[in-house]
Amino acid sequence: MPVTSCSIRSIGNENYRIDFNRSYDFSQILKYDVYHTSYYTMSHESFDTLPNYVSGDLSLSSYFPFSKPYSIFAKSMILSIDLQSKINVIKFSYKGAFSENPLVIKNNGNVIYSNNRYSPVWETVCILAENGNFALEFNPLSSSGSDYMYFDDFTLYEIDILNKAVLYDTTGVLHKVFSGDNIIFIKSLDKFMNESEIGGIFSLSVCDSVKVIVYPNPARDIINIASEYEGEYQFNLYTVSGGLVDSYTGIKGDDVIKIDIRGKNLIQGMYFYSLKIGSKSFNGKLTVVK
C-alpha cells in the first residue's frame, strides 16, 4: 500500500526529518525510497475545456467534479503525451466502472498501471514515468457497453534533478533539500520485491537549505553541478594526496554546470573538489568509477 501522509520538519544543519505513516501490507517492508526535488516544472489541467491531447467519446460534466467547474465524462478515451524530461510524475483522479474495459496506463508501450474494477468514489493516482510516450487508454476501440469513467485534475511534474534517500523505517533524515518549493514522494519495497505505487505528492517550502548539489556521486563521465548561485565559477578536482587533477572555469547561469571528465585518465577511487561561484566557496568528496 502506498504512503498517503507524512510530516517534515527542520532539525538544523540543513537537515530535515521526515516521518510518514507505515503502510498496511500483507508482507514486510524492506525499505522506503524517499524522492525529493526542487528542480521541476508543473503543469495542471482542471478541464475547463477538452484539451487537444485527449480523444474519444468525451464530454464535460459538472456532476460532482473532482475539481470545479468540470470533469471529463468518457465512454472511451485516449490521452497521449510525449514526455521530454528524463523523470516525470503524473497525477490524476478518476472514478467509474471498468468491468469490461480496464483503465490502462502505458509508458513507451509498457503497462505500468491498470484497473478493471468498479470505482464509485474518486481515486487519485500518482505514477512515475520515463521520458517518451505516456498513454492513458480506456475502451479505446468502442464506446459501447455500460462502462464509463470520470477523469479530472491531471497534473504533470517534469523533473530535472531527483534526489533519493533510502530509509528502513518510517522516519529518517533528508539531505540536499534546496530552498524554495520542493516536492516529495515515497515508494516502498516489500520482501517479495513488490514496489508500491506513489501514494501522493507532498509539498515542502524551504527558506534556507543546501545551495549546491554535485551529482552523480559516484561519477563516471560527466559531473553535474546544480546551484542557486550564479556568476563566474571555478571547479578544481584533486587527488586524495592533494594533487590538482584539472581546473574548470566558466559562467554559471540558471542552468546546470556540466564537467566532462572523459579523457582525463582518472583512476577509480576517491577525489576531493573545490568549487567557487562568485564569492561563495564549497568543498566536497567525489568518487570516480570506471
From TrEMBL:
InterPro entries registered for this protein in UniProt: Secre_tail
The Secretion system C-terminal sorting domain sits at 214-286
What is the protein's name according to its record? Secretion system C-terminal sorting domain-containing protein
The organism named in the record is: candidate division WOR-3 bacterium
